[in-house]
Amino acid sequence: MNEAAARLRDAIRAATAGLIDREHLAELLILAAVAQEHLLVVGPPGTAKSAVVRRVAQSLGGNYFEYLLGRFTEPSELFGPVNLSKLREGLVETDVSGMLPEADIAFLDEVFLGSTAILNTLLGVLNERQFRRGHTRIRCPLRVCVAAANGLPEDEGLAAFADRFLLHVFVDAVPDNKLEDLLAGGWAVGQAPLTARADLASLDMLNRAVPDVDMSLVRADLAQAIRLLRQANVQLSDRRIVKAQHLIAAATVLAGRTTASRADLWPLVYAIPTSTGQQNAREALRDLLAEARHPLLHAVVEEAVQQPLARVARLTETAARLLAQAMSPETQAQAEALLREIDANFDNATMPPELAVPRARLVLMASGD
User: Fold this and answer.
1) Would residue 233 be called left, alpha or beta, if left means φ above 0 and alpha means ψ between -120 and 50 degrees?
2) Is the dihedral of CA 240, 242, 243, 249 positive or negative?
3) Which of 112, 186, 188 is nearest to 148 (CA)?
């Protein structure tokens, strides 16, 4: 399982190379796929939502389906046309070749513009992995569906549909201080072809391990987290509370463990359906989430809890990559920048042991020794 998780980490790195501030979205997609839950991405147009999903799918292999929905999108555009030869025999069957019912990973942009007929059929695909239309009954291989929208719907019917996506993530435009990185990364994206770095078998292996995770040690902490959220007026339905355990178990499996702990509670933040609710949850759960960290999913944990310990894995990995490079003015400057970030998060008393030795070596690199 550790090898499978490492392959997925490699796939994430390859997929997000050049996409600034989008690593957490790719990591959340992997978490959703391992848990076999679905992800809703909310953000303005042009924020690389589709690019991230497309590149992660390329890095994983398998059948990928993508579609931009509109007011006049017909169900056949997603699910396939009626099979005319069968229709002559009096059977209403759908030809699903190359369409959504055959997809392993799917991306639906502007999903809330879909008609009632489309959304009702989608519910069966999302919830039960079953496609039903006329005489057609198909078991869908779908691991994860990612939907995107510019905002959450106000219509009650659409809000109920949005609730079927257990994970919600909110993205914004890249901030001013990273515009140079955005320009450089955007120029480099697509220069080198992206090939599969992992496979669906890795996802499936990890998914099969999710039901075997021991949740007993973290269940009391999870219940206390729900109580704290309710006190902060952050409400979760009973269904989302129960299903959040799938996310916590998936995070545990991706970390290479079989027993969940407080370090794995962070996915609960993404089970909260609104941006304001997620921000309030970070404050309400500050103490419970203080131990959150993950050896593979660095960016998404940092984004979830926004606390120092969540940054340890990324800082340690970045230090290792930097120390493996030859000494140069550029690496010295990078070492100085990394030291500033480490010292902004930890002092001598709070420095994690796994970060202390790399920090000492970075000091020598920054000084030119």
Assistant:
1) left
2) positive
3) 112
Under 8 Å between Cβ of 59 and 194: yes
Residue 65: predicted pLDDT: 96
pLDDT in tens, 281-330: 999 999 999 989 898 999 999 999 988 888 888 899 899 989 999 888 88
Weakly modelled stretches of the chain, pLDDT under 70: 84, 86-88, 90, 190, 192, 369
Residue with tokens 């100085």, as numbered in its chain? 336
Nearest by Cα to 193 from 59, 350, 65, 71: 59
Q: What is the number of residues in the chain?
A: 369
The token duo for 211 is 């039901």
pLDDT value at residue 192: 67
> For the sheet containing 64-68, what is the strand order?
64-68, 105-109, 144-149, 39-42, 167-170
Exposed (0-12), middle (13-18) or buried (19+): which is 268, by Cβ within 10 Å?
buried
Mean pLDDT (the chain) is 91
